[in-house]
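Throughout this chapter, every protein is written as a compact record of paired, labelled lines. An example of such a record is reproduced below:
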Amino acid sequence: MLVSHILNEKGREVLGIQPDATLQDAAMVLTKNRVGALIVREGGRLAGIISERDIVRALAEAGAAALPLAVRTRMTSNIAVCRETDTIAEIMETMTRCRFRHMPVVEKGRVTGIISIGDVVKTRIDETMREAQALKEYIATA
């Protein structure tokens, strides 16, 4: 199964934030939209990603004094991206090996979606259930 299948099912909406926004702003957007990461865009280009984990680490280090910090100070700027033609297995391996939970999908220099580890797991479970059902049907009609 391909990344494009996940995006077609879940949607392609990508929430973003500016690098000069505060960590408090980012936390509010994450909470309001019930997502775990935001794309950081600067001048229309992908500049990084900020996750709940990044904000928690900032709070652990600086306490409430971290909240007015700019997103750019805590975002991950060297991010791995994938393409819609990548397989779920490839994405799962990369996420596991690199220990991150969100990956932007980029086509022709434009962010077309974001994939979370939850999306990958859900897709794999659904795929496994379909395969099991097909095997049961095959055995029943053999």
Summary: Residues 3-141 form a domain with the CBS-domain fold (CATH 3.10.580.10).
